Amino acid sequence: MKNARRSVVAGMGMVLVSVVLAACAPMPADDTERQASRLDSRLCIRNDTSMQMRVQWRGYPAPSDIARGETTCNTGYETLYSDVEATIEYEPEDDPGNWLSLTALADNRVLGLPQGAVYYEQQDYKYGVCENFFVGDTHTFQNFIFRADLTRQDDSADHKEFSLTISGPNGRNPAREVSGCLKPKIPD
Length: 188
What we know:
Blueprint: H1 2-24, H2 29-36, E1 40-48, E2 52-57, E3 64-65, E4 71-76, E5 84-91, E6 100-107, E7 115-122, E8 125-132, E9 138-142, E10 147-152, E11 159-167, E12 176-177
Parallel strand pairs: 1-11
Antiparallel strand pairs: 1-4, 2-3, 2-5, 5-6, 6-7, 7-8, 8-12, 9-10, 10-11
């Protein structure tokens, strides 16, 4: 009986040592890729217009100005909503006092490609761009007031990186209706 107990204790000891050693081993590549899908999102907004512009980030108490040539960024990770969301207000030069707005978002979903969008609302519809992004993709729309270029940059160590540049128009590329693209996240 004593030998049987010793064998069980020795066997359990070997299992415990194996578990500890396995936990210390480097992760295989497929685990690294799974970790990358958990990165949060970062959205940077650049004002390349001569308009007054300000941004209200979701979760922040007050808007902040974005001066011409300036960039402002925010990061986040959310389970039910887009990781990062901003309301961008701008004042057209030919219509002082009339502030208009855009919404921009960046989201790293558990399954599939990261998603980005920038849009305005008109009569209960949303118009702009809303896409799944590979690194290097840029999606654009413009009107007679501005041009919006949303780009997915190279990932950083902690974030799926998106940049939105708002500049002066140089033609027309009408915004398409994107209401159906903007869906809540499926929780992890």
